[in-house]
Amino acid sequence: MVERTDLRLKILRLLRRQPHRYDRRRLLGMGVSLGVLFAVPLLGLARVDLWRGRHLLLGAPAPFKHALAGVIVGIAATYVATFLVNLAGGRLFCGWGCPVGQLSRFAEALDGPGLSRRQRLAAHLRGGSFSAALSLSILAWWVDLRVLWQGSPAALASAWGVLAGAVALAWAHGRFWRWDFCAGACPIGLYYSLVSPARWFGVHFRDQLATCLDCDACDNVCPVGLAPRSLMDPTGPRPGLAVDGAPGRNHCLECGDCVRACEWMIARRGREPVPLRLGFFAGPQRLPAPPEARPAPQPALRKAG
Ligand code: SF4
Ligand code: SF4
After folding, report:
1. What is the whole-number distance in angstroms between the Cα of residue 258 and the centre of ligand 2?
2. Cβ of 262 below 6 Å from ligand 2
3. Which domain holds residue 294?
């Protein structure tokens, strides 16, 4: 697993040298998620105010119990929204809209080989800012954020203390727990490893065996240890909370890292088309590739570092 992680970081560092359409899409997905998290309390749709008791529901002052019910309904609605997204596209929300996964993505940018001090500082700033934004958005559900500059000394200390603790926790999650949470602890992940309702969308290995380099870049870059070329096959034992023996696609975060790595490898070799694709399935492209049909291994990736 350590070796796989090192290879993932090495591949990601190579990939980051070139802007990619997935960077913009993920930025958009995270922007929407954070936007919703901020919008509900700041627009007063639901907010409990543990500071001055100015609770809100549907834009109007409300008793504590009603506002708390609104917050609970809001959290449940967020889960329903992610459920619907995932229902259509597997764990699509995990790969493109979940701030917890994004914390891991920001944190691992610090561990890439050969980082200069400036790059390291920039990675800290990006990850820290995202952790702060996420923590602030969660705090906004439970207190009027004006407590951060208008509160009494005790209220100020409490609010800033809670915020600092949440930021530290979020950043520590990305640094230390990272993708192990997505693979073996997230309740949403457990649910999807059970049911995998996505029938039409996901990563698939197209019937393009002639262009596959068998370089294993897709395997090595997968953050949750899957084999992207054969996601229809049952997986072996999985860590943490997971269903052993379910097809790989049940565990797939739909993050597209394997596709991006594949595109990069194929472009270097001047081949077309790219064997891996993230999108709608079409006909036999869903089928796993028979191992005996793959071309002889070519250790292109090992030379790339
Ligand atoms: S060419 Fe693409 S699909 Fe084939 S092994 Fe390399 S990364 Fe995977
Ligand atoms: S198989 Fe590909 S899309 Fe799925 S989690 Fe692994 S890298 Fe991400």
Report:
1. 6
2. no
3. 190-304
